[in-house]
Write a structure and sequence with these properties.
alpha/beta; seven-stranded mixed beta sheet; six-stranded parallel beta sheet; 10 helices; 17 strands
Length: about 350
């Protein structure tokens, strides 16, 4: 691929406002990578931002999910032509959070898709023909058997669920009999596949959208309607990935004593934990764990998981047909419709 002179991108100019943008391509500094877009996907968090429900700095380039091809490398382990995905955060590697397993809370954190155009090169988001990967960003090469559109959401949804699912070790030495996933969006379907691989005999998945329940079986789960789920006190672990606080009462009801509740989707202001008591948690000896983003090691595990299961699950079916960046407004409207779990973009 010839090295372009300018990057073209979708500029976020505030709630509901998008513009066409252009920037000169920078030369990468030490350990940096200049990369060209293969496929990006529109995360639901960005839809919320563009709808005015989340606040992000602007002017900026949104987007953090994507797979890119390296066109200029100052990193010894990566060469031009490599397809890569990247950790959604650039970290220092030196602070206590980085050293002790919580790099996503680095004291010098920079998150892709959340930075002003004036921050560094400006090419900080995936809704762009190019991105500059910074020196402290973990990258993973994409194996040949993983198509671009399947690779694109790995560095957000899948890596987050790899981080979430690792907490089932808190259940040991109990046997892994039954687990419930609350929500059959992209996080929930990834959770079904991951939990099946972790040895759960029964992986149940609830959602209020019938169309999403149809996908659950294809990803190793058993579809269930929330109002009909009748395994009170029999579930080892529950994973909340739907973003609704209304599901908490169901989780506390169905969990067995000593069970685990992992909260992933409730990362928004309207997440007040109502209608539960401390007594419910204490008497059942429950563990409640919050998961936000993930660490560099989880990205590596996520890529390996897709490599091993690429022929097992229909990952590509979860994405829309691909839209060029210049048709971002159309792609955004499709994302808002929730017809697909992710809408795909190309340069």
């Amino acid at each position: 691929r010839l090295l372009a002179v300018m990057a073209t991108f979708v500029e976020y100019a505030g709630a509901g406002q998008i513009l066409d943008g252009r920037l000169a391509l920078p030369d990468p500094g030490p350990n940096e990578l200049l990369c060209a877009l293969e496929v990006a996907t529109i995360c639901g968090s960005d839809v919320h931002t563009l709808n005015g429900l989340r606040v992000e700095p602007f002017p900026s380039i949104l987007g953090h999910e994507g797979v890119f091809r390296v066109i200029a490398s100052r990193r010894d382990t990566v060469k031009c032509g490599d397809r890569i995905t990247f950790h959604i955060a650039n970290v220092c590697g030196l602070c206590d959070f980085c050293k002790y397993g919580l790099a996503q809370k680095c004291t010098s954190l920079m998150k892709y898709g959340h930075c002003l155009l004036s921050d560094g090169s400006g090419l900080n988001g995936t809704y762009s023909s190019h991105i500059l990967i910074r020196a402290g960003t973990h990258v993973v090469k994409i194996p040949e058997n993983i198509p671009n559109r399947v690779a694109a959401p790995i560095n957000c949804a899948l890596a987050t669920m790899v981080q979430a699912v690792e907490h089932i070790k808190l259940l040991d030495p109990f046997p892994r009999r039954r687990v419930l996933v609350q929500g059959a969006g992209l996080l929930g379907l990834y959770a079904c596949a991951l939990l099946r691989a972790k040895g759960f005999a029964n992986v149940d998945c609830c959602d209020v959208m019938e169309a999403r329940l149809d996908l659950v079986k294809k990803f190793g789960g058993t579809p269930a309607r929330p109002t009909e789920y009748a395994f009170d006190g029999q579930v080892d672990a529950v994973f909340e990935v739907c973003g609704s606080a209304a599901v908490l009462s169901q989780a506390l009801r169905v969990l067995r004593p000593g069970g685990l509740y992992v909260l992933v989707g409730l990362v928004h202001p309207k997440s007040q934990l109502a209608d539960i008591t401390g007594e419910q948690i204490i008497r059942k000896c429950l563990t409640i764990k919050g998961v936000h983003n993930y660490g560099p090691e989880h990205l590596s595990e996520a890529v390996e998981f897709i490599k091993q299961t690429a022929d097992t699950y229909p990952y590509s079916d979860l994405l829309s047909p691909e839209f060029p960046l210049e048709k971002f407004a159309e792609a955004l409207e499709l994302a808002r419709s929730q017809k697909f779990l992710r809408v795909a973009l190309t340069a």
